[in-house]
Amino acid sequence: MASDDEADSKYNQEYENQNGKCGIIFLIDARRSMFSKSSTDLANEELTKFNTAIKCCRTVLMNKIIAKQKDLVGVVLFGTDKFDPETSTTHLTSLMKLSYPNSESIKQMDTILSDSDALELQRTYGSSDGFSLADALWYCSLLFTQRKIHFEEKRILLFTDDSDPHYSDTHQAHKARKKASDLNQLKISLEILPMGTEFEYSKFYKELVEITNGSSDTELDSTSRLEELLERVNRLDFRTRRYAKLKWNLGKGVALGISLYTLYREATVLAKEPLSRANNEPVRRIKQTFDQGTGELLLATDIVEFVSVAHEDIIFTSEDKEKLNKLTEPCLTLLGFKPLSSAKEGLHCGQASFAYPEESLVKGSRHLMKALVDQCLAKQRVALCCLTPRYRATTKYVYLVPSSETYDSAGNQLTPCGFHIIPLPFSNETREQKFEKSPQVDNETVEMARELVNKLKFRYKPSNFKNPKLQQFWTHLEALALEYQAPDIVEDQTLPDTDAQAVRLGSLATEFNNACSLSCASTSVSKRPAGVNTSSPAKRPKRTLPKLDIVEEIKSAIANQKVDKFTVVQLKEFLTFHNQTVTGLKKASLIEAVYKLKLV
């Protein structure tokens, strides 16, 4: 039977998977200025602005295939000299209809990127300044409408290096603003990705984005670097998905609305899907229950569940089960406050989450949450609460650890204002563990260890470390799907930089090893050579006896409490001479074992 934490984690993942689809359309300017080389990629290769945008699309497509397979992506070019007979639109080219990312879409992007001749690419799609941005936005909205599915989010990402595309045509500019208003009614958001070095966002696009989204950034920095562009696209494409929305009852009728989010979840490879051996089509599993006596097919209403208590079966109907699942209403109830020091790491039991204010439940929740966070931080307190995130979920005691809002140098939010929800164990979930008493270490060794730790410190960020197992899986899958000759080499970012560590530590590592009697020699496991008869008993190695003068010296050192001056080899020989087990013992444990002999 799965544990409650596993069931809750599985439910959270299913909730996120069922929380609607996201549609994203890349609207790329294909006029002559976009084909000038003005940027470099991660390999310092010169790229045109158009190729930079296409490369950005390819990266997003790969990320969607890996992490968000239910999202839809489309690519549209504007400013071309093409004509679309289906929609009777001019100066528009649909590179990819709004569809699920697959290997064919990746190959299509690779084909465009493989053509390094900018003039040839420009001739392929043509270029025209007589385009209408309003028609381009209308065409993108049409692609969303043609898909008869429910979108949780619809977004257009516009790549261009032209600050004011209709500076000489006020009629076309007015049409674009009118179409932006239509996008607002259709709940389609518009984001601008300015390219190049000279882009004035406030000239035209600031007002356009304000009409579409209801708000806009005061200014946008233009860029031509691929890594900066990818960072912006990933930030725009990032979506927060809550797994619960409930009220936090503070007592005496005071409550605020909160949403719960899972900040971290283990990423796994794709689940295996059964296929038919005959035609390689997916197989749908159907579970049916039959009467063991008559073989008759049973319906869901014919089946009941029971629990045996005192040799008697207590039957639960579906109505009884439904009532049991609704014994507690989903809510967060405040029990009191405790010092921050009481929230020990050892009490963290289960998957943590994050509580953020939800204005749609209770108006004013953000201000009340901000006041609670500020006071908890000022007084170094954590809130002790009882949490039931939803029906059928396990009720738990939790700590709410306050988190203040922080920003980086670019003004991007690093941590939001809210509370980290830390699940606490019940009494029957705790265990008493007995460990051996740690050996005494001299102050010189402690100072040496402190210096070693300080020299090897670094700031940990999860985004800097990719799972090598997942990277290996996706790299081989990509090579197989796209028919590459060989997969790319995956760099294991979890391995330590031994060269940098050696430069930082210098001779400190050797001194510390000698002080703690640590062996740096690597032990290799050797296989039994072929043809060796394993049935014959292994010969016991002869026990080498220590010299008698060493035995007498150690005996006299025991009385003076100076056994630590002897080497590990000498101590092991001494203990072996007295029939003591020394396998796997460090010097501190060996010294303790010598004193326990009580030979004086």
From TrEMBL:
<keyword id="KW-0227">DNA damage</keyword>
<keyword id="KW-0378">Hydrolase</keyword>
<dbReference type="InterPro" id="IPR005161">
    <property type="entry name" value="Ku_N"/>
</dbReference>
<dbReference type="InterPro" id="IPR036361">
    <property type="entry name" value="SAP_dom_sf"/>
</dbReference>
<dbReference type="GO" id="GO:0016787">
    <property type="term" value="F:hydrolase activity"/>
</dbReference>
<feature type="domain" description="VWFA">
    <location>
        <begin position="23"/>
        <end position="233"/>
    </location>
</feature>
<dbReference type="GO" id="GO:0006303">
    <property type="term" value="P:double-strand break repair via nonhomologous end joining"/>
</dbReference>
<protein>
    <recommendedName>
        <fullName>VWFA domain-containing protein</fullName>
    </recommendedName>
</protein>
<dbReference type="GO" id="GO:0006310">
    <property type="term" value="P:DNA recombination"/>
</dbReference>
<dbReference type="InterPro" id="IPR002035">
    <property type="entry name" value="VWF_A"/>
</dbReference>
<keyword id="KW-0233">DNA recombination</keyword>
<dbReference type="InterPro" id="IPR047087">
    <property type="entry name" value="KU70_core_dom"/>
</dbReference>
<keyword id="KW-0547">Nucleotide-binding</keyword>
<dbReference type="GO" id="GO:0000723">
    <property type="term" value="P:telomere maintenance"/>
</dbReference>
<keyword id="KW-0238">DNA-binding</keyword>
<dbReference type="InterPro" id="IPR036465">
    <property type="entry name" value="vWFA_dom_sf"/>
</dbReference>
<dbReference type="GO" id="GO:0005524">
    <property type="term" value="F:ATP binding"/>
</dbReference>
<dbReference type="InterPro" id="IPR027388">
    <property type="entry name" value="Ku70_bridge/pillars_dom_sf"/>
</dbReference>
<keyword id="KW-0347">Helicase</keyword>
<keyword id="KW-0067">ATP-binding</keyword>
<dbReference type="GO" id="GO:0003690">
    <property type="term" value="F:double-stranded DNA binding"/>
</dbReference>
<dbReference type="GO" id="GO:0043564">
    <property type="term" value="C:Ku70:Ku80 complex"/>
</dbReference>
<dbReference type="Pfam" id="PF02735">
    <property type="entry name" value="Ku"/>
</dbReference>
<keyword id="KW-0234">DNA repair</keyword>
<keyword id="KW-0539">Nucleus</keyword>
<dbReference type="InterPro" id="IPR016194">
    <property type="entry name" value="SPOC-like_C_dom_sf"/>
</dbReference>
<dbReference type="InterPro" id="IPR006164">
    <property type="entry name" value="DNA_bd_Ku70/Ku80"/>
</dbReference>
<dbReference type="GO" id="GO:0003678">
    <property type="term" value="F:DNA helicase activity"/>
</dbReference>
<dbReference type="InterPro" id="IPR006165">
    <property type="entry name" value="Ku70"/>
</dbReference>
<dbReference type="GO" id="GO:0003684">
    <property type="term" value="F:damaged DNA binding"/>
</dbReference>
<dbReference type="Pfam" id="PF03730">
    <property type="entry name" value="Ku_C"/>
</dbReference>
<dbReference type="Pfam" id="PF03731">
    <property type="entry name" value="Ku_N"/>
</dbReference>
<dbReference type="InterPro" id="IPR005160">
    <property type="entry name" value="Ku_C"/>
</dbReference>
<dbReference type="GO" id="GO:0042162">
    <property type="term" value="F:telomeric DNA binding"/>
</dbReference>
<comment type="similarity">
    <text>Belongs to the ku70 family.</text>
</comment>
